[in-house]
Amino acid sequence: MKDISCKLLVIGAGPGGYVCAIRAGQLGIDTVIVEMAKPGGTCLNIGCIPSKALIHAAEEFDKIAHLASGRNALGITTTKPAIDLSQTIAWKDGIVGRLTGGVSGLLKRAKVKVVQGRARFRDGKTVEVETETGRQIIRAENVVIATGSVPVALPFLPFGGTVISSTEALSLSAVPDRLVVVGGGYIGLELGTAFAKMGAKVSIVEAQDRILPQYDAELTRPVSKRLKALGIEVMTGAKARGLAKSGGALLVEAEDGTEISLPADKILVTVGRRPVTQGWGLEELVLDMEGAFIRIDERCQTSMRGIYAIGDVTGEPMLAHRAMAQGEMVAEIVAGHKRAWDKRAIPAVCFTDPEIVSVGLAPDEAKKTGGETKLGLFPFLANGRAMTKQGEDGFVRVVARADNHLVLGIQAVGQGVSELAAAFGLAIEMGARLEDIAGTIHAHPTEGEAFQEAALKALGQELHI
Ligand code: FAD
Ligand code: NAD
Fold first, then answer.
1. Cys-Cys with 332: which of 20, 233, 244, 337 at CB 3.0–4.6 Å?
2. 138 lines ligand 1 (CB under 6 A)
């Protein structure tokens, strides 16, 4: 097979890698991308998109089940619903197929050469790929490592049989009767909630003293309340110890030290993800590392000239939109543009029920910057649109500097607030002051009005509370 030489080689076609390759192609850079699985990476195939599809299906099912229970205030009656999970999964696979096909089309349109197979470094400028038709050697002036991450396994609870990762959880053919989730972070809560809504008896085992420890307690309170209402058992300060001998239960050390056996048809382990940095020759390049992750500077440059790293391999926050923004920036740097990471904030959204959004600094983090802060919180209880959607639980909170009112952080928890992430991100990125948000006409009736009211509240000028 003839060797390939190119200006840019991207390894991994997840959101980081494929965006980098598309932008590079658009900029006229001779680009090759290598992918060992499917275009779209974790996000499109086994992450963001499939999980949100499942969450949506579960929500629809739960809504109808609630209406069928006869205890609703809307005056709607219906019969008890049923769900055929294999059909739901087929629908989800259809969406994934459309999106990954779309990525392939975009790469083609940008004239990016796609090589299918596992890349392995020979040296910092040469990679070999085992393809279906033989070994392909690729030499490149610049290399972007975008190999992403995989689920962390617990040594005493290896994946296999009843013990599953998010990947298997997103392709089950039937809803398990009893699901035990180890890890009450992003994936554990998003998927645990979805399976509970579809009828599973769910228990969540979290090692820390509360769920979603990355968010402050005020933000996660409505989520905890809803988990309880859904009948999900949450054990905090608890440690998974291993499978019971029968294989049908998880042994857990509870907070008070007692050992409990939680019966389970499936045990979903979601205790974080680790970067894909080993087993493909990267170790031999001896790049500087930051813990398990590849160390990068503000241009995503690693310690070796001409080698960049983007996305989950470079550490937290392991989010698709961060990977994409890094990918786009690196393509422009390779094209000779003057670029450096200058983003003020990376929005984080947790698709729990209700959803959580956080952009910029939380109140405690803002206080740590030293200056005085102002805070405005507006509850959805006082928002007309939220009431009409039966979504009164939650709020929008704005944190700003007390001296010049520069907005430092915006958080929200509530039904459907993920869609407010765009407005929050824009406000922070454009350096909005409280007066800018308060002075913007927000359409009525929308949940977005709570954002304006939170800013008004921080200014002491609230109207609707
Ligand atoms: P990845 O998407 O992991 O892609 C890396 C690619 O590299 C893979 O396709 C892999 O096959 C390929 N690869 C690896 N090694 C090689 C090699 N040697 N040769 C060739 N190819 C290789 N993030 C969000 O922002 N929002 C969400 O709602 C969200 N939900 C998630 C839900 C779940 C269940 C999971 C697991 C993750 C979720 N994430 C979410 C995280 C998101 O998926 C990742 O942050 C994102 O995919 C990272 O992109 P990436 O390009 O760095 O890596
Ligand atoms: P996570 O870091 O969000 O949560 C892991 C949880 O497991 C933590 O709360 C941790 O305290 C707990 N834990 C760790 N070891 C444990 C043990 N032995 N026993 C019990 N609990 C334990 O990780 P995740 O849920 O696996 O998700 C991985 C990453 O994927 C996230 O960090 C996030 O970057 C990304 N993700 C994002 C979204 C989103 O943006 N909506 C959704 C899913 C995943």
1. 337
2. no
- CA geometry: angle 69, 414, 229, nearest 5 deg: 35
Token pair 């850079």 in the structure block, residue: 29
Q: Residues with Cβ < 8 Å from 68, sequence gap 6 or more?
A: 77, 78, 79, 80, 81
Is residue 320 within 8 Å of residue 51, measured between CB atoms? no
310 lines ligand 2 (CB under 6 A): no
Is 230 exposed, middle or buried (CB count within 10 Å of its CB: 0-12, 13-18, 19+)? middle
pLDDT value at residue 305: 96
C-alpha 148 – ligand 1 centre gap (Å): 5
Structural tokens at position 296: 């990068």
Task: Identify any residues that bridge with 398 across adjacent strands, giving them in sequence order.
Answer: 376, 410
pLDDT per residue as tens digits for the range 110-140: 999 999 999 999 999 999 999 999 999 999 9
What average pLDDT score do residues 106-110 get? Answer: 98
Structure confidence by residue, pLDDT tens digits, 335-382: 999 999 999 999 999 999 999 999 999 999 999 998 999 999 999 999
Angle at CA of residue 460, ends 454 and 464, nearest 5°: 55
pLDDT in tens, 160-176: 999 999 999 999 999 99
Q: How far apart are CA 419 and CA 1, in angstroms?
A: 48
pLDDT of residue 246: 87
Q: Assess contact for 148 and 16: CB atoms under 8 A.
A: yes
Ligand 1 atom at shortest distance from the alpha carbon of 311: 52
N- to C-terminal Cα separation, the chain: 71
Burial of 454: CB neighbours in 10 Å, binned 0-12, 13-18, 19+? buried
Please report the domains of the chain, with CATH numbers, ordered by start residue: 4-46+89-150+274-334 (3.50.50.60), 163-271 (3.50.50.60), 348-458 (3.30.390.30)
The answer, yes or no, to whether residue 71 has pLDDT greater than 90, is: no
**Contact call for residues 376 and 409 (beta carbons, < 8 A):** no
